[in-house]
From TrEMBL:
InterPro entries linked to this entry: DHC
Species for this entry: Chroicocephalus maculipennis
Designated gene of the protein: Dnah12_0
Superkingdom classification of source: Eukaryota
GO BP annotations, alphabetical order: microtubule-based movement
Protein name, as recorded: DYH12 protein
Cellular component per GO, a single term: dynein complex
GO molecular function (one): dynein intermediate chain binding
Length: 310
């Protein structure tokens, strides 16, 4: 036993007195550069091969759906068709580029080597977890639906009728008919302001005698407050008031936009004509009305439209 312990002690001393294992020598810089160049070249080559694969073209109805979101006023005017084609071409290019980048991300992993810092392709993010349907949801759905029907008053059938009244009354109606401005020929600023004021007054009277009367008759019917609880009457009428206000605001906004559209620099056929005079007073020649008078008349029209139905 003593000899065995002595032999074990000697072997352990030799083990710990042994020189440390030398570190793994680094590759020469030329070799590392060679391997990095191979990685970079291979990645760029495979990326080019993946991007050269055919891409499913974007569907035409998708482009048409995008165009339907553009206001009609932006689609009219000179050179607008060329601009639309240019924008659609840009959408198609972005779509194809996104599809190619997606294929590269799904197929390749970009190596972390020098020379590929500007490459945008990276692995796709993890897919989001799905919804958890492990617990019953039907009761909570019914509860949420009933709560919406009792508190979301815009879903009440009477509100739909009110919306129909507004669409029928205001869809093609304007506070001021600007289409006849050009036909009147040159007008002075005061006459123009007077005509606009009269048009606003007549439009306001027409709205109060037609649309407003239909709204009043609608809410005087017996079934107007059907299924509305007594403690929900005030919020219900607040919703009615807000809906009516939004309809009138939309009418005023469309009227102001129609007036602003008259001054489109690309379409001068609808510009109003102002009567101008060249005066000479005390050796001073100037135009009447002045630029400030014209500006005041134009701003007066906008303000007068905004004051209608207030």
């Amino acid at each position: 036993i003593d000899r065995a312990l002595e032999a074990y002690r000697v072997s352990m001393e030799e083990k710990y007195d042994r020189d440390p294992v030398p570190p793994i020598p680094e590759l020469p810089s030329t070799v590392r550069k060679y391997f990095f160049n191979i990685l970079t070249t291979n990645y760029l080559f495979m990326k080019k091969c993946v991007q050269s694969n055919p891409v499913v073209p974007i569907q035409q109805q998708w482009l048409m759906s995008v165009l339907t979101l553009v206001p009609q006023s932006l689609m009219e005017g000179k050179d607008r068709e060329l601009l639309t084609e240019k924008l659609l071409g840009e959408i198609i290019r972005d779509y194809e580029m996104s599809m190619k980048r997606c294929m590269v991300r799904n197929v390749l992993i970009k190596p972390d080597v020098k020379g590929l810092e500007d490459e945008e392709e990276a692995p796709l993010p993890l897919l989001p977890l799905g919804l958890d349907f492990s617990t019953p949801w039907h009761n909570s759905f019914i509860q949420a639906k009933n709560q919406m029907l009792s508190n979301l008053h815009i879903l009440h059938p009477t509100m739909k009728t009110l919306l129909d009244f507004g669409c029928a009354a205001f869809s093609t109606f304007y506070i001021v008919d600007f289409s006849s401005f050009r036909l009147k020929g040159p007008v002075d600023c005061e006459s123009l302001k007077t005509d606009v004021s009269l048009s606003c007054s007549k439009a306001e009277e027409k709205i109060l005698n037609t649309w407003y009367q239909r709204v009043i008759s609608l809410f005087t019917q017996e079934n107007a407050l059907k299924d509305v609880k007594l403690d929900q009457v005030d919020p219900f009428y607040n919703c009615v008031s807000m809906l009516m206000s939004n309809q009138l605001k939309e009418l005023l906004r469309r009227t102001v936009e129609a007036f602003v559209k008259l001054f489109d620099p690309e379409d001068r056929n609808c510009l109003p004509l102002f009567q101008m005079e060249l005066t000479l007073d005390e050796n001073k020649m100037e135009f009447y009305p002045s630029f400030q008078d014209l500006e005041e008349a134009i701003l007066f029209i906008v303000n007068r439209i905004g004051q209608t139905l207030q």
